[in-house]
Amino acid sequence: MKIGIQTWGSHGDIRPFIALAEGLQTAGHQVTLYMTSVVDVDYSTSIPDSGVHIVQIASYILPSASQITKYYQFINEKNPLKQAKLLFSEFFLPIENEMYEASVKLCQINDIVIGHTIHYTLQTAAEKTKTPYVSVMLAHIFPTTNQPPVGFPRIGKWGNIFFWWLIRTILNKSLKPTIDMLRIKHGLEVAKDLLTDVWSSGKLTLIAVSPEICKQQDDWPKNIQVCGFLNMENTPNEGSISVQLEHFLDEADPPIYMNFGSMIPPILQIQKETIQLFEDASKLSNCRAIIQMPLWEQCQVKSSKKIHYVTYAPHHLIFPRCKAVVHHGGAGTTQTTMLAGIPSIPIAHIKEQEFWGLELKRLNIAPSLLIRRKVTPRKLAERISTVINSPIMQENAQKIAQFMKVEKGVSKAVELINRKFN
Description:
Layout: E1 2-9, H1 11-26, E2 30-37, E3 53-56, H2 64-76, H3 80-92, H4 96-108, E4 112-116, H5 120-129, E5 133-137, H6 157-174, H7 176-185, H8 194-198, E6 204-207, E7 224-226, H9 243-250, E8 256-258, H10 268-285, E9 289-292, E10 307-310, H11 315-318, E11 324-327, H12 331-340, E12 344-348, H13 351-362, E13 370-371, H14 377-388, H15 391-404, H16 409-421
Parallel strand pairs: 1-2, 1-4, 2-3, 4-5, 5-6, 6-7, 8-9, 8-11, 9-10, 11-12, 12-13
């Protein structure tokens, strides 16, 4: 089959779709991957030998002058709906037309299309052109009567039903109008429900989350399937282990890895502040640390016996050699840390990341969640000490990793797609 894939977002929103594209191409399909990155990274050579045709569509990066203002606006916004609207208004809507045109083209040249849940331009184009559409959810957000949405209390079946109704009502009132405007513009009726009619597909919706976090629910319709984490080997833009880093990893006890991934804009002031937070917490907890910071050299810091700086690094190779990872709570980093068999210390910048931090706490492989706008070096040091001195967290992380290592998320996704459309 000819298969088109489209995604939008940061590294954690793009990497899983590169993995899926490569898996489908290896399985004999002809795959085209359209991506829109909101970080300044070139993915065009990410999988050069697979045959996947990769095209970057209208990548939109905020002008540097406004990045620092928007960064603090994002992390200081307590209302998750306002936060989501800010994200859409700054990074999605300015290039919505270009992405929709690309979505239509993708539908016209392929037998089926596959899209990131949030990529409503592809769902709209698929409905308009009557092209079979598959949705990929990178978080387990589909309603079930068996459990409440993450962060809500467990008070039984009827409580679960009410909380999911509440979530859907809020989402429909706040985010659906933007999507409906595009639908109306192209001759479609407004969507009835964001979760079931836009973010998921009636044909096949893949939940790309490890079954160790999200189990298949018995009240889900057959089109909702947990395939597992869409993982892949290191890509060229993730760097490599240098000789200096290899020495640092070998010369003493395993370090703590510290990074905020795509939550760190290329602004010197913000990176200096983050380095100071990480350095101070490392000293207070008396632990060695690897600090990932793209502009660390410009921040006038140097590696030492206690701290080693990297611009980028292959997480899947380094994390298993660390004690724990301090991270922002993105879906990809969360599951990569779990796969490495070590605990997390999440510091959420936005509500979606709070979701993952709460899940890690539930699995007892992370301490209590920290929030970026409230975190201090002492609070972070306390969480690091909790993790280091918790054999239970270490054991739980190792057990979960053993199960995750036999999961084949990409293979399962390819199998489900083949079964549905072949």
